[in-house]
Specification:
The chain is mostly helical. It contains 3 helices and no strands. α1 packs across α3 and α2 crosses α3. Bound molecules: heme C.
Length: 98
């Protein structure tokens, strides 16, 4: 009887370990995905929202000190949220670095 309980306990323990492992592996892959997703979203927003009234400016047309001010003045025109503005800004600054 006692040994059966022990086996059950160790089985439960092993199960606990496998689920814990799964959780850690997803939390590790998540942060790697997010930056490129955000950049893709920023690129998408930039290309779709910022070329309606004029040509699409190249990221390198302005330096990284200028872009936040430009985006602030274009935000209302492009009808984008603060969060979308941040996504566009990180896409632009990433493109300038390359
Ligand atoms: C509703 C029309 C409209 C939309 C949408 C729009 N713009 Fe503009 N943009 C303008 C006009 C008009 C000007 C020129 C006059 C001015 O600077 O306000 C301009 C000028 C600019 C300039 C030149 C600024 C300078 O000082 O040389 C940049 C860069 C620019 N826009 C970027 C963007 C970006 C980035 C977006 C997307 C977030 C965007 N625009 C969306 C109308 C728009």
């Amino acid at each position: 009887m006692k040994s059966k309980q022990l086996i059950m306990l160790s089985l439960l323990f092993m199960l606990g370990c496998t689920t814990a492992k799964k959780v850690t592996s997803t939390t590790i892959t998540e942060p790697q995905k997010t930056p490129s997703d955000a950049l893709a979203q920023g690129k998408d927003l930039y290309e779709n929202r910022c070329a309606k009234c004029h040509k699409l400016y190249a990221a390198s047309d302005y330096n990284i000190q200028r872009w936040p001010r430009i985006l602030n003045s274009m935000q209302y025109k492009a009808k984008i949220t603060d969060q979308q503005k941040e996504l566009i800004l990180s896409y632009l600054s990433n493109s300038i670095k390359q």
